[in-house]
Amino acid sequence: MDNRLYIDRYVILFVPWLLAVLFKDSDILSYLISWLGSFVIFYLSMKGKIKPLPDDRSPAAQLMRPIFLVQIIFAGYMCCTSIFYWFDVLGYVDLKSPDEFFLPNAEQLKLTAQCQRYYCLAHASFVCGILSVMRYPMERRYVYDPAGFSTLIFRIALITFVLSYSLNFISGLSQFSHQFNTLSFTAGTLALAMAIPERNTWNTLAAALLYAFNFYHALLSGFKEPIILSVLILGVFLYPDYKRRVSMIFIPLLFLLFLLLPTYNRIFREQAWSGRMSAGQATAMALNGTFSNGQNQSNRDFLSYRLSEIDMFTKYVKSTPAQVDYYGMQLIRQSLMAIIPRVLWPSKPVTETMVMERVYKAGAVSRESNVSAKPPFIVDAFLSGGGIGIFISLFVYGAICQLIAFKAEDLFGGYMLGTALVFSGLFQVFWRGQNFEFLMNTVFWSYITMYVVFWGLRFTNILQKC
Questions:
Q1: Looking at residue 181, what is its pLDDT?
Q2: Average confidence (pLDDT) per 10 residues, the chain, 466 residues
Q3: Of 306, 288, 286, 285, residue with least CA distance to 297
Q4: C-alpha 287: how far from its chain's center?
Q5: DSSP helix/strand/coil, 142
Q6: SS3 state at 160
Q7: Residue 30's CB: how many other CB atoms inside 10 A?
Q8: Closest CA to 163 of 453, 369, 362
Q9: Pair 331, 383: CB distance under 8 Å
Q10: What's the rounded Cα separation, in Å, for the pair 175 and 357?
Q11: 356, 374 Cβ separation under 8 angstroms
Q12: Cis omega (within 30 of 0) on the bond before 321?
């Protein structure tokens, strides 16, 4: 792999954003250029046009690396899902042409186009950060026995599951429970994906039972994300061995989930979260209601206002800096405070309260409302310093994401144990792009957890020095 830095190639990533800014007086054209620009960035980066891709594995066999999966989920969700909201602003309800007398809200049209330009800038900066520090291949310092790898992965899934459950009851250590939970889920999914091509009946059955257990708990969560991720990750793990079958089965399945889950979650939350039914009863009712009629409105609201966060973004752009000044380094300082465990600082400010304060100031939601509407990463980047804040923050975001993935491979003997399991299991927060405080807290403690797992594998001689 050629690791030289070609500045002129990196500038190409920002051409779609520059063109969108050039045509900003035409809201529709500017929006379309910046929206389509993200697909150009996907193509240039994932085809190795800006910087050659790592050549230690085929592209299909390294999908969990940041340039592929993290970019697809994080940037895809951030930049590409706004199209349904855009059609809604233009008056296209359920993709039907608006009435001939319909006039779009000019201000909202302008704000939406401006936010999409910010998304395009963020995408280019994020990819630039990844590519600028991407250095492959690497010298291995530690190795493991590849012959028993699938069994090792299954054992890790079981051990981390027990640890995740147990740590909930130990004061001061519950911080690690979520990290071990996501690691167990990823390990169980990887164990199933490895057992299937090996045609090991008992391993496949055991891994399938663990996967089914995790999937059932995802259904009981009331959130779309764990359900979709459980299917997506299994498909990514199986893809190198079953490219055609995975494409034919998992892509339509994911599309179907996006259509059905809004109705399922709405019914589940109405019944389970209100206390009217148990989680199991609410699940049965939600599944039954999902496949019945009358879900079009729920799906339309989901696609236009919940699949994308651009409607909320426009509210922040409208109020900052016109009504609320930029925060500068304040959010970074609050993020560093959030890392400190409450057991060491009992009077530490409540992180949720700190985050929601800027939501209320921007008028994104009312103080009287009983909702949690924490801003995503790009919003905090904008609130910190506008376009410059987005450029710097997203570049750092991409660079740190790639550096941690590289460190995981360095500690755990390569891609499979390092990136596919540990990085993907502990650092899924990079896929979602949470607000500054929650992101920094999760990344910090996940990094600590990574070293806990490393020393555990070293102590048991599973990992050995070369």
A1: 87
A2: 72 97 96 98 96 91 94 95 91 74 87 98 98 88 85 90 84 77 90 86 86 85 80 90 90 84 78 75 78 56 77 94 94 93 85 90 79 86 97 98 96 94 94 92 94 94 88
A3: 306
A4: 26
A5: strand
A6: helix
A7: 23
A8: 453
A9: yes
A10: 24
A11: yes
A12: yes
Residue type, 38: S
Quick one: pLDDT at residue 363? 85
- Residue 316 near residue 364, CB atoms below 8 Å: yes
pLDDT of residue 70: 95
Q: C-alpha angle 365/371/376, rounded to 5°?
A: 70
**How many whole angstroms separate alpha carbon 394 and alpha carbon 397?**
5
pLDDT for position 388 = 97
**Among 315, 427, 377, 397, which Cα is nearest to 124's?**
397
Q: Which amino acid is at 34?
A: S
Eight-state DSSP code of residue 148 = G
Q: In 10 A of CB 196, how many CB atoms?
A: 18
Please report, as a single letter, which amino acid is at residue 121. L
Query: Which residue, among 106, 118, 117, has the nearest Cα to 31 in the 3D structure?
Result: 117
Nearest Cα neighbor of 437 from 359, 371, 343, 367 is 359
